[in-house]
């Protein structure tokens, strides 16, 4: 997967997490569940970045910056 595709996925995952956090602010009864879901989307974003940068291609991207 290209670096741009990875960054787009990360952006999407974090946007979804943000929506869950915003919803949690307006729905106190479901707050715990919504925040757990936001946490899971943030975990997915981090995992996507970690998997990309742990590959030789991702490491090369770091060196080029």
Cα-to-Cα separation, first versus last residue? 18 Å
The overall number of domains is 1
Give me the strand/helix succession. HHH
Low-confidence stretches: none
Strand content: under 5%
- Major sheet details: none
Number of strands: 0
The backbone outline, from C-alpha atoms, is elongated
Determine the mean pLDDT: 90
Structural class: mainly alpha
Nutshell version of this structure?
The chain has helices at 3-26, 31-53, 56-64. With 65 residues, the chain is mainly alpha-helical. Helix 1 packs antiparallel against helix 2 (31-53).
Describe the protein's topology.
Layout lengths: L2 H24 L4 H23 L2 H9 L1
Describe the fold and architecture.
The chain is mainly α and 65 residues long. It has one domain (3-64). Helix content is 86%, strand content 0%. The chain is built from three helices and no strands. It has helices spanning 3-26, 31-53, 56-64. The longest helix has 24 residues, at 3-26. It is elongated. The model has no long low-confidence stretch (mean pLDDT 90).
């Amino acid at each position: 997967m290209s670096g741009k595709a990875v960054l787009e996925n990360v952006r999407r995952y974090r946007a979804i997490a943000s929506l869950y956090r915003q919803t949690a602010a307006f729905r106190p009864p479901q707050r715990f569940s919504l925040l757990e879901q936001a946490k899971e989307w943030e975990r997915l974003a981090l995992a996507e970045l970690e998997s990309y940068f742990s590959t030789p291609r991702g490491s090369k991207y770091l060196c080029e910056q």
